[in-house]
Amino acid sequence: MTKFLSILSLMFAFLTISGQNVNITQQSGSLETAYVKWDPVTGAERYNVYYSGMGITDRKIDDPLIRSYGSYFRADVLGLAAGNYTIKVAAVVGGVEGPATVSGPITVLPHDRTGFAHQGGRIPGAYNMDGTLKSNAVVIYITQNTKNTVSLNVTGATANPCVGLQTILDGFKKGKDSRPLAVRLVGNITDLNYMLNGDIVIENNNLATSSITFEGVGSDAYANGWGIRIKNASNVEVRNLGFMLTDAAEGDNVGLQQGNDHVWVHNNDMFYGMPGGDADQVKGDGALDVKKSTWVTLSYNHFWDSGKANLLGLSEGTAAGLFVTYHHNWYDHSDSRHPRVRYYSAHIYNNYFDGNSKYGSGSTMASSLFLEGNYFRNSKYPMLISMQGTDIFGGGGGTFSSEDGGMIKAFNNTMSGQTRFVAYDATNFPVEFDAYVANSRDEVISNTIKSKKGGNTYNNFDTDAAHYIKNLVVDDPETAKTKVMQFAGRVDGGDMKWVFNNAVDDTSYDLNTGLKTMLLNYQSSMIYVQGETPVIVSSQTLTIPNNNDQTVQPGTPIENMVFTWGGTATDVTLTGVPAAGIIATKDMIAKTVTISGTPTADVSFTVTTVGTEGTPVSGSGDITIGAISDQNIFIHNFTTDGKVDPDNYYSISGNMNSTDGSTTYDGLTLTKRLKMETATDIHHTTTKTSTLTLVFDPTFAGKIKVNGITYTVPAAGNGVISIPNIPVGLTTITKGDVANLYYVKTVYDTTNLATGNISKDIDLAIYPNPATHTVFLKSDSEIQNISIFSWSGNLVKNVNGNAKSVDVSNLTSGTYIMKMVTNSGVITRKLIKK
């Protein structure tokens, strides 16, 4: 009887999946990878995916390569040699594999392995020259769920198994394990529990037989909030990843720190990092920097408005034996450093310089640059040599800290829209030139042609038969531009794209707020990875705004929160509102509910969808009245802080004056100045009546506007104006006359006690404050939850349970709001992170 029931069960499973063939909706081949998408099959518990081609028949792929995106599934096949393939997908129901659907032929292309990284027959990374995995390679998958628990036994490790990504890499650091290692990231990976100063660090003690690849799967893999740092490593490859919002101590998306050789970084998307401490780091620090490393290739990377794209060289002190290749990179409205070179010999070819507001490539400190076949579109200064030519044209002080010059050889580059470029001319420009434009690519430049400062010559490394360059066939600039736009960045250009407005962005080096907002709001559309616990997706949908947790000062309205329902949801219900001055307004046509108002008490609420199909989906929000700061003086010093206020009190947009001035105030010597122009805007919100003091150039006696009212700086005031009785609320400082601003100070009127501190009836202390690493909490009440918000209201850390301390070491310096939920109520405190 039992046997009969088993047979009956199998027959039922077969009947269930009969006629439910997988419907493949999309197929595509790319660079040594291919993928298919298909519609979900009702009742399928998993899918088996196989590929065939190039001598392989029905080889099954790993589970983490198969992901659900709700309305479709996607499987990516990695490690394919160039050629034609098919991919087969079958649904599994009740443990039984059903009928399979086979894709049409998919063409896979090879990666371009040209460059110094492959010098001497080396093959960086875990893949062979044909793109297939090396023999004995080990593959680990990193997902958001497994990043801290993935494990591997590593030869020579301090303890085995090594648990967590960085711990595994620490095992390879000793150079005792020569197995090729492929680390594959799946989806959006945020900070890991264990990192090294905010980075994942790759080392292998320069073991020549070791090789490591760090790569993304598909088009939506991200290192979000952290960077990759490579040191004392050989044969490393980093590819197909998106890097964004790193706040690591080094500040680079990818950084070759020291002691590296044969490293290949390619096909990555480089987005903004978090602001650094310097005025020129509002977009983050370096996107892809190289120091004290050689035999490196950086190719097919897409730089999205990077402030400083590629630093090459720092304190090497010699030009011997340092070789790097840059090719087919898309410098998409990035500002400068493409690259900025000290000491190195750099082959820079077939790149697309697309709307670069400061300069293209820069040569200093005896470096030799060979630029060929590049396409420059509206790149302000395509090429610069330190302290000569365009670099100091018009009396400028130079771009590169007055360093000695290097030398640039240029051949067959296309330029349009540049502000200035001057080629060497023995008669007209024998000294003040930007590059030597060769008559042929194999021309040897005479050692009589020297940099103006330092007397450095071109080393003609490109004509050395020992290197790949001499016999390389280079794309013409137009072909290179097309190829770059097709292949630079991740598979299919990645899942997150931004279209620049050339009319504005070509010349602007300000942070693009739209692009930054897109990065901050990014949420992966991936639902789950096969093999991990799936998330049941309802046909009802609710879009939750990213400002659904807000802390505001007393008497201040919240920023409107807009929830949007969709799918099979027909309405929403609300609990917790209206209450305490907060209301909800529905728009049945737009399918939105807007939460707004000025809170008189803390409010928590929930929005839940309603519909006849699907299951309800809920989203919540919290509104907290923050304790008023007991700080009465707020200062911004442009000399020490640039445009970024470390306390987040002042919001500043505008341009710094590149020429220093000089004045004194409050016992300080001030030199750095913000230009008061039409576009300049400084604003802050006061909670008490205040006096505003502004410090300009000592000779300035012109006009300035505060809240639209024009004030005149006293002629005998040494450039200083103090404006009393600034009312409570938003204060805006804008241009009256053209001026330079050194210093801003707001002082609250402490005689007005009407807006004094609001205290809670809960005894809770946090210490130390300011804090560097850990904040401790002391309370008579039981703490149930701790939330830390940025000053702009974004949740940056959340801790559940009766915690006695909070690790804040990963927070950037600035001012935060801590919200503590206790069994006696809710209390907030201001926290300053050093």
Structural overview:
By secondary structure, the chain is mainly beta. The protein is 6% helix and 39% strand. Among the domains are: 2-108, Immunoglobulin-like, CATH 2.60.40; 538-625, Immunoglobulins (Immunoglobulin-like); 633-754, Sandwich (Jelly Rolls); 758-833, Immunoglobulin-like (Sandwich), CATH 2.60.40. Mean pLDDT is 91; it is low at 1-19 and 751-761. The protein has an 11-stranded parallel sheet with strand order 10-13-16-19-22-25-28-31-34-37-39, with no helix packed on it. It has a 9-stranded parallel sheet with strand order 14-17-20-23-26-29-32-35-38. Strands 49, 51, 54, 56, 59 and 61 form a 6-stranded antiparallel sheet that branches. The radius of gyration is 30 Å and the shape is globular.
Number of extended strands: 68
Write out the strand line-up for the largest beta sheet, numbering strands in chain order: 10-13-16-19-22-25-28-31-34-37-39
- The radius of gyration over CA amounts to 30 Å
Kindly estimate the percentage of residues that lie in beta strands according to DSSP.
35-45%
Q: Class of one domain in CATH?
A: Mainly Beta
Total helical segments? 6
Arithmetic mean of pLDDT: 91
Main location: secreted
GO molecular function: pectate lyase activity
Protein name: Pectate lyase
Pfam families: CBM77, Pectate_lyase_4, Por_Secre_tail
